[in-house]
Amino acid sequence: MLRPVLLLFIFFVTCHAQGRFEVDYDNNVFLKDGEPFHYVAGSFHYFRAHPDTWQDKLRKMRAGGLNAVDIYVQWSLHNPKDGIYNWTGIADVERFIQLATEEDLYIILRPGPYICAEIDNGGLPYWLATKYPNIQVRSKDQNYLNEVETWYTQLMPKFTKYLYGNGGKIIMVQVENEYGAYKICDEEYKIFLRNLTSTFTEDKALLFTTDRPIDNELRCGYIENVFATVDFGIASEAEVAYNFNRLREVQPKGPLVNSEFYTGWLTHWQEPNARRGAAELAETLKIMLSEPYKANVNFYMFFGGTNYAFWAGANDWGIGKYMADITSYDYDAPLSEPGDLTAKYYILRSVIGEYLQLPPLPLPDPSKKRKYESINVTAVDNLFSSTGRANLGSKPIEGSDKLWTFEELDQFSGFVLYETKLPTVFTRDPANLVVEKLRDRALVYIENRYVGALSRENAIKSLPISKGNAGKKVQIFVENQGRINFQDNFDLKGILKNVTIQTFFEPYYEELSDWTITGYPFEKYSQIEDLINSHGNYVYSRSKNGFLYEGPVIFKGTLNISGDEELADTWWSYKNWGKGSLFVNGNNLGRYWSIGPQMTLYIAKEFLKRGENSFVILELQRAPSDLKVDFSNEADYNED
C-alpha cells in the first residue's frame, strides 16, 4: 500500500502536469497552476477572416501585448442545415485553436449556443424555425434543449484536448451570452446549459457568464456556481467603479473581468460610420488595469473583419426600428479590416506594456494594397427570365393563398419572389398596395417592370398602383437583409402577414391570393456558373439614372493579374452601382449598397490569384452605363 505522503505527491504531480485554472475568491485573482494570473485578451472571430490570414492576425495580437484570444463559435456556420455539419475552410475552428496555441495565446472559448456577434440570428440556425415553427429559443422549450444538446455533442468534443486541464490553452468557457439582456431569466434553461457544458469541460476549464451592468441584467444572467463577468466600453473613473460595483452585487468576491471592452462599435446601413477615440479607450484601460481593480480585460473587437456572404445581422434594440448591419466589421478595432496595425493598436499596446511584459515580436508594416485597373462587366441574365428562374430559383409553389416565409421554404437567406394577379377592376386610382409585415426589403414589379421599393428599415410598406395595371401580374421580390441578432426571439423573413390593395368598399382593402412563390437562396455558386456557361450576353433595360427596369441582373467580368505581379489587397469602389452582392472566384464577399456609409467592399488578396479572376455581380437595382468595376487601395466609409 502506498503511503499517504506518496499519494499526495503523485496527486500534486498529476494535477500540475495537467494544469489547473481556477478562481481564488478570497484574494480576487485567477490562479493558473496555483500562481496568480492576469489576462488581457482580444476578440477575433475566425469566421470573419480568410483562413490563410488567421495566423498573421493572431501573431499581431500577441505582439500587441495580449496573452489571450477570445473566440465565439457560430452554430449556424457549422450546422447550416439540420443534420449537416461543416468543419472545413473558414469553419475549421479546430485549426484556429491550434494556431492560437502556436502563437502562445490562451483561449477564452464562447460556444453560445447564442453569440449575438452582429451575425444573422445571433448565430442560431434559421432551420430551427423551419423544424419547429413555434420554437422558443434560449429557454426551457424542450425542442430547443434537444437541439442544443445535439449540437454540443458534435461541437464540444473537438475542444477536449485543448482544455487547460488536459494540457491545452483553453482556460475559460462561456455559458450562454449576455443572457440578462434577453429578459426571460429562465432558471431551468440556465442550469441545463451549465450542466451540459460542464459535461464536456468537467473541471478542465473555468465556466463563466458575461452580462451588461444595466437594470437587472447581471442578476438575470447569473448562474449558480458559474463565474460572473461584466462588459462595458469607454467609461470615466466613476463609471468604471459603478460598473464593477454592479458586478459585486451578484458576485462579492473574485477577480474583476470586463469581458467585452468595446474598442469601437458596429455600424448599420444608412447611418454614419461608428468610431471610438483611442485616447479615451487608453484612459479607461488604465483605470481598469490599475489599483484598486486590477481587472482582467478582453477587447471587443481587437480584430473585426468582414461579414461575408449573407452573414451580417441586424438590430432593433427594442425601439421598433429595424437596422441592418453593413458588410464591413472593421469595428474601428486596433487591427483594421485587412489586419493592419492602426494608431489605436500602438496606443493600447503601450498601455498594456505598463502591466504585462510585451513579447519580443516585430511589429510588421501594413500589407500591400493595390488599386487595380478598372474592368468591364457584361450582363448575363435577369433573375426573372425563364433561364434565370431555372438556374437560380427553387421549384415554385403555385396557387398558394399562404405567403410562405424563408423559414417555411427551408431557406437561409437570399431572396423570395411572390407573384400573383391584381384585381381586374380597380375602384381607386391609384390604389394603395400594402405589404403589412415585410421582412425586410422588397422591389415591386408589374409584369416584370419596376414600379417601386418597400422598406422595413424606413417604415415604407405601401405604394400606389395605377388603374391601368388592373388584372396584371404583380411581383414582390423580397430581400432578407439579415436577422436581428440581439434581444429578439427569432426574426422570421419574407412576408409575414397579408398583401392587400385598396378598394372603395368596406373593409376598404382586398387581400390578394393565389400566389406563386419562388426562392432564390444563392447558396450554391455552381448554379451561377451554370447560368453563365449556358447563357450568352443579355440585353437589359435601364432608365436614364441606371435603374434596372426588368428585375435584378447577373453581371460577369474578369480581372487579369499577370504572373509576375505580387497579389495585393484591394477594395471594390461601388458608388456607381446600386445594391447587391459580389462573388470573386466563386466566393460571396458580402452585400454592397451605395446608400452607405460603406462605399467599398474589401477583397483580401487571398481571394485573388494570378491569371484570370472571376467577378460576378448580383445587382438588384441600378447599374452604371459604362458597366465598369473600379478598385481602390483604401476603404471608404463616406466620412469626408
TrEMBL record:
Domain of life assignment: Eukaryota
Alphabetized PANTHER family for the sequence: BETA-GALACTOSIDASE RELATED (PTHR23421)
Protein name: Beta-galactosidase
Keywords recorded for this protein, A-Z: Glycoprotein, Glycosidase, Hydrolase, Signal
A Gene Ontology molecular function term of the record: beta-galactosidase activity
Organism: Chironomus riparius
GO biological process, one term: carbohydrate metabolic process
Ranges for domain Glycoside hydrolase 35 catalytic: 30-354
Residues in Beta-galactosidase galactose-binding domain copies: 552-613
InterPro entries named in the record: B-gal_1-like (IPR026283), BetaGal1-like_ABD1 (IPR048912), BetaGal_gal-bd (IPR048913), Galactose-bd-like_sf (IPR008979), GH (IPR017853), Gly_Hdrlase_35_cat (IPR031330), Glycoside_Hdrlase_35 (IPR001944)
Record's keyword annotation contains Flavoprotein: no
Catalytic residues identified in the record: 178, 260
Family according to the record: Belongs to the glycosyl hydrolase 35 family.
Domain Beta-galactosidase 1-like first all-beta: 405-516
Cleavable signal peptide: 1-17
